[in-house]
Amino acid sequence: MPVGLFRVCLLVITAIVNHPLFFPKENGTVPESTEEIIQKMKEREESLRLEQLRLEQEIADQEATQKALEKAAMVVEESKEEKVRWDMWTALSMVIFLLIELWRQDFQEGNWQDIGGEEDDMAVLGKAFKGVAFPDKAVLASFYEKRILGTTADMARMREMVEGFADDLLEALRSVCNRDADMEVEDCMGVGSMYENWRVRKPFVCDLIVPFAPPEPYCFRCQTWCSGDSFPPDEQGYGTIKVCRADEDVTGCICDKTKLGEDMLCLLHSQVSSTKPSSEMEDLLCFKNTQYLDADQVMKWFQIAVTKAWNRISHKYEFDLSFSLLDSPGALKIKFKSGKSIAFNLTPVVQYENSDVYFISHFPRSSLAAEIPSSTHWFLTFAVYERRFIQLVSKTLPANACHVSCLQILSFLHGKQCSLTGPSGLTNYHLKTVLLHLLHARPSQDWAPEKLEARLQDMLKFLEKCLHEKKLYHFFIGNGKIPAELGFPIVFQRAEPLNLFRPFVLRRDIYRKMVDTFHEMLRNMSALINEYTVHIPLAHTNGIRKEPV
Question: At what angle do helices 428-441 and 452-469 cross, to 10 degrees?
Answer without folding.
Answer: 110
